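so the lab meeting is tmrw and i was supposed to have these ready like two days ago... anyway. pasting both below. for each one the top line is the aa sequence and the line under it is the structure tokens. i havent really looked at them closely yet so no promises
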Amino acid sequence: MPVWEGWKALWEQEWEPVSKAALVGWLTFYGLFLLYALTNRGGFLLIDHVNLIVHEAGHLLFGWFGSTPGLWGGTLLELLVPLALAVHFAYHRQTTGVAFAAFFFFENFLYISVYMADARAQVLPLVTVGASDAVEGHDWFLLFSRWGILEHDVSIARVVRILGWLGMLGTVGGLAKHGAGRRSAAAF
């Protein structure tokens, strides 16, 4: 059997069903979180404390491969952690686990967009691990400057923020659709 057929067979396996009570509970949780995120004016949500720790760990981890990977590492690890969890849960066909990991993958876009939008203004306090004099500067200032797009920081951040919201809403919609009766991979 070709590799593609093996992956296709794996993907078509049945997903873990979601009970009505669990579906109502998860949809309530996501609805409340979305409301909280929508009404938050500070740009830093409670979950972003966790995102910040993962972000800083990414700089340390990817810093072993050089300064450029170290610079990218914060955002990379911030996205790789929930993505890896989503892949793990998908492999095991755990519907609510995939939804949770995917939801917070996209929630990271909100957090990242706040940091991107601050590239020129640099009013956000910088957090670092280790000696503060070793910090090169604001991640997105450095990246956008290298790419010659610094003047577009706010516009790029707006697009990233919209993608985050669309991803979170799409994840909740996918969970609702899957939990409403569809049990195959095609439903999610």
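ok protien two:
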Amino acid sequence: MHLAFRAANTDVFKLIQNCPRIRMVQVPASYRRTLSRASEMFLTIQGVELVEGDVWGHRRDIDEYYDIDDQVMKRIDRLQASGASTSDIASAISRETKLSRELVSYLIKQKS
């Protein structure tokens, strides 16, 4: 899930309450620096990974959700099959798709 607003502690608690199976939250770099330690610790305790990054080219007024294309996942699979390192794959996919390196690294880790 990508949070496109500065989340207060209550927002983080409500997010976990409403989405108990969530495993990753992405926030822009500027918001990451202002997230409270209590929220970070709460997410960690709940097993939720906090990832820094932006969703480029996504317009919320058109579509509230952003799906990662199957082609991106297939490209990750091809790069892994060719023996590329996680760092190299994250760099390549990030450059090609404008997804953050941290998000791509998270996707790779989840596929393993």
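from a quick look at the 2nd one: Residues 4 and 27 are 7 Å apart (CA to CA). The chain has two domains: 1-64, 67-112. will dig more after coffe
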